[in-house]
Task: structure prediction
Amino acid sequence: MAETVLETMGLTMRFGGVTACDAVNFKLKARELRCLIGPNGAGKSTFFKCLTGLLRPTSGHVLMQGEETTDWQTHEIASLGVGIKTQVPSVLDGVSVRENIWLAARRFFPTKEANDKAADIIDRLSLNDIAKSEVGRLAHGERQRVELGIVAAGDPWLVLLDEPAAGMTSEDVERMIGIIHEMARRAAVIIVEHDMQFIRSVATTVTVFHQGAILMEDHVEKVMADETVRNVYLGKKA
Amino acid sequence: MRDFSIQRLVISLAIAAVVMLLLPLGMNTFVLTPLLIYGLLGMSLGLIWGFGGILCFGQAAFFGLGAYVYAISAINIGESTFPMLLAILIPAVFAAILGAMMFYGRLGDVYLGVITLVVTLIFFKFMNSTAGPEYVIGTARLGGFNGIPGFQTLNVPGMADEYIYGDSLYYVTFVILVLVYWLVNGLLQSPFGRIAIAIRENEQRASLMGYDIRARKTTLFAIGGAIAGLAGALYANWAEIVTPGLFSLGQTAEIIIWCIVGGLGTRLGPILGAAGLGYLKFLLGQQAFLDNAIVMGLILVLFVLFLPKGLIPAIEDIWSLSVGKRRRRRPARRRKRRALSNG
Amino acid sequence: MDLAAVIVVETVYIIASLVLISAGLAIVFGMMKVINLAHGEFMMMGGYATITAVHLGVNIYVAMLVIAPLVVGLIGLVVERLVIRYLYGRLVDTMLATWGLSLFFVGGVTMIFGNTTTGISTPIAGVSVGDYQINGYNFFIIIVAALLVLAIWLVLKGTRIGLIARGTMQRADMADALGYSPDRIYMATFFAGSAISGLAGAVLAPLVGLVPSSGGNYIAKAFITVIAGGPSVIAGLLSSSTIFGVVNQFFTFAISPVFGEVALLVAAVILLRLLPQGITSRFFRGKM
Result:
């Protein structure tokens, strides 16, 4: 069995009186592909932000490859080899696609290797046609793809994706799923998503969040068939 | 590729040399030297604001600090070489400390502007109040409102009696300007410079990539401080006196106007803006009808309203339109707005 | 005992003058998120308007309390129509443009009045407290500042206009949908802010020798008081004025007036570092 690369213990995040994440215990193994789902306000995005250092958890621990990263800054976590994609595409609009990916690669490789790495990623994600374009001028789907390229450029061992399929055409989504599967061959991947269609097509283990806690964790088909999960999604009392 | 860049370097150096030799034919070097110094000062703000996205309203603080450090240490030491180095080093260290305080506190644009402006005013107020005999550093009296005159001016390194002034000061300043420009250019093409631009474009993405934006902004800010300090030291040598006016609101405003007029995010813009507006100020000083401030103020308002990108990008746009080539540069504003709506 | 009384009055006076200096800027920043760097020049022009009116034979109180606010308010109106309204939502650009206006006004006033110090004497005699002498005009400043804060509070809290203004500042699109033109409201707010700046400049004019560059003395103080105050207009204004006023007075008495000024600025830098969103982002939250 593969080792655990990411673990949270009693991870809790409160905003004033609201508990967005309530003592979440979570484990992820190397090269595992995991989806986090749950209705709006279930706490999955808050959980994600606690993992990436964008939020400081109120209490609890985050461990990455056995190292405690609970109160680390985002850049420190990223420097460990964690590729992160936020909900709203976060790219460098004023520079070219190649420069975006090169900058991401340069963090982990010296200049020459970063050049090769960027070229490789551009090939793999078929960004060649737009490699020299300024990212700010690209369509939404292309920008999402560029961001995946940025995430992949550092050869991460852990990839965190927050709603990667949001607002994309079905064609783009299919391409995206291909890329994600390829990433999952080298890295553990967590995807936060509430689009069931998307999750079905990724077909993997799913963790269901509800009211700040983990409701269940199982293979996607079993989760879909579960009565409680259905009720949660339809807004009934669980 | 390599050959091409060497060729370009040779051509630019040749152009610089020709300009350096031609300018004194049309103008007095005593008028030209401060224009070059302004160019250097404009470049310092252009670097941190245009490429680092750091909104600094107090570049005059480093300029004035460089001038005062030079004057005070030149009086105490005599020979000018070490004071020149100090005048670069101390503003750089000061900028690093100030920058660390601001960037590690994650202050937003407006607060950065406020703090840097206030720091400049602290210097201004403090220096103005140092008229008394108790304000002495070594053998140098700070002199309050009247400033510090009569310090050792620039000399050939190691030879305290071989002064560099007049025409020679012009040539030395020109060479320093070209050298610093070349260094800044290299910096911007290096990974450090490219990452600085990444931070300007999107701080969150840069830190998600794993870059420590606080440390990098602090470093860039210190480099800007060093260049401004060097400009201040050269200015002290040209004027042969330093006064609190170097820290004034008007001084710090002018640096900003140079950058806006020349074009933020361009390498030559702030230098040309500084030299051009510096010359305009000189011409305005020749007559009594129009006040300098009214013209500078009007220029700033009009540029912000009608040409916020500045002259160099506008000329590039016109050029590329007429040649029919597509430009890649986009106005910074659109990006800014998007970044704001994301936050 | 007498000294204590004098120090208390002096401290209250410093706080009151900080309130006066900052009120106009606070309204414009708090309600419109526009930082008017020409604010100091608006005050300076209020001073010049007063002095000119007095020289023309107008009663000094009429000049200070009526003419100066009107003149500066009208200048503000022109500025808003010609420049500011094109820059709403672009914080940095408005700062730059108003900085340009600030230079423009300094230059303009220099051309009209010359670069020399002008002034008028205070219309109120001094008051003796034991061995000490207090400038009687200080009491006038304190009263004006108190009335001004009260008036702003009443307008915002108690009137329909204040309600509409506050609503527009929060959701301009909503107010627009309800039939209130944000454009007109911004215009009116800027007029009011400018008029208050003019009033402040006028009331403070008898205490200082006025030069065209006098605005520079005000802008930094006004700027930091408003920014340090944070999002709530009145609570922010009062709390940061009090902190800075006390710091200023303490160092003025302990060392020298210049150190009082420097200490105030240093305190501001430290405060902003600790509370980057201003005092009222943490304390007095939700107040006006």
The longest helix of chain C spans residues 2-32. Chains C and A do not touch (no CB pair under 8 Å).
